[in-house]
Amino acid sequence: MTVDAVERAQVGPLLAQWRRRRGISQLELANLAGVSARHVGFVETGRSQPSREMLLRLAEHLDVPLRDRNTLLLAAGYAPVFQEKALDDPAMRPVLDAVRRVLHGHRPYPALVLDGRRNIVASNEPFDRLFTAGVAPHLLAPPANVLRLVLHPDGMAPRIVNLGQWRAKLLTGLARRAALDERLRPLHEELLGYPCDQPVPELHVPGPDEIMIPLELRHGDRELSFIGTIATFGTARDLTMAELIIESFFPADDRTAAYLTGS
Question: Which keywords describe this protein according to UniProt (predicted)?
Answer without folding.
Answer: DNA-binding
